[in-house]
Task: inverse folding
């Protein structure tokens, strides 16, 4: 195959090869001096037109000069979007370099992948931090609930001791009332000489009655307090149960967060190596 025919073949397929590739792909063919065919992506159409001279330092120029495959990654700042260009020298039957061909592809999808991966990593990190904070707060609340349960149990124990004291007071009040009653009877028996003693006896009886009444009131108050403490203890137990359930859920979410972070790292690595494998 002669040199001109080989270059012509590349020029003819320049229109079709980009259509076979998914994504925004273009193809340019040149001889040693100028561009012969250009089927660029729209953003580069004005930069490579048939008849334009081969630019020194370009991928096409380097491929012809070195006889090697050249991969060039062009940043977004140069033409408004990032792309990768792969240049390959076209070599004749005698080993002479006839020209070169370059295929360029937009890297916008790769950048989107990288941006998405970074966003996932940031969200996963924030979620992990939030979960760690929630876990700490839940543990603190659980400790407070356990302390509250212990305090209510201690208060219940002390109230049982109070019951014994009230029982003793009731007994004393009963004996005092009986003593006052006996004293009144004795004062009545001795007549006028026992009037002063009768007054004292009456006051003793009143004191006994008041003590008995107060004891009943105190017992009623303590009964209500005991019911409240029982309710408080039950509520504390429920809080501990809820916290334990939350801990299980938080651990599950934490595991999913770690998986999300790992997936974001894998996605970022995939995006970074998407075109480096072609170099």
Result:
């Amino acid at each position: 195959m002669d040199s001109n025919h080989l270059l012509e073949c590349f020029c003819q397929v320049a229109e079709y090869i980009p259509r076979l590739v998914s994504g925004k792909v273009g193809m340019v063919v040149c001889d040693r001096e100028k561009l012969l065919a250009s089927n660029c992506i729209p953003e580069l159409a004005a930069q490579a037109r048939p008849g334009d001279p081969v630019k020194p330092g370009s991928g096409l120029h380097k491929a012809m000069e070195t006889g090697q495959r050249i991969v060039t990654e062009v940043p977004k700042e140069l033409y408004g979007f990032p792309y990768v260009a792969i240049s390959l020298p076209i070599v004749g039957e005698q080993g002479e370099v006839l020209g070169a061909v370059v295929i360029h592809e937009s890297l916008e999808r790769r950048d989107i992948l990288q941006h998405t991966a970074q966003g996932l990593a940031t969200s996963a990190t924030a979620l992990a931090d939030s979960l760690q904070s929630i876990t700490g707060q839940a543990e603190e609340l659980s400790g407070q609930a356990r302390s509250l349960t212990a305090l209510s149990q201690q208060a219940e124990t002390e109230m049982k001791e109070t019951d014994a004291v009230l029982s003793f007071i009731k007994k004393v009040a009963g004996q005092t009332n009986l003593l006052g009653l006996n004293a009144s009877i004795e004062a009545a028996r001795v007549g006028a000489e026992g009037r002063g003693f009768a007054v004292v006896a009456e006051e003793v009886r009143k004191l006994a009655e008041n003590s008995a009444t107060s004891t009943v009131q105190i017992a009623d108050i303590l009964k209500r307090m005991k019911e409240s403490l029982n309710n408080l203890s039950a509520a504390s137990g429920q809080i501990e149960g809820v916290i334990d359930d939350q801990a299980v859920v938080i651990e599950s979410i934490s595991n999913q967060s770690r998986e999300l972070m790992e997936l974001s790292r894998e996605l970022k690595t995939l995006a970074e190596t998407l075109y480096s494998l072609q170099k």
Summary: The chain has two domains: 3-106, 113-272. The beta strands are 25-31, 35-39, 70-74, 83-91, 97-106. The mean pLDDT is 78.
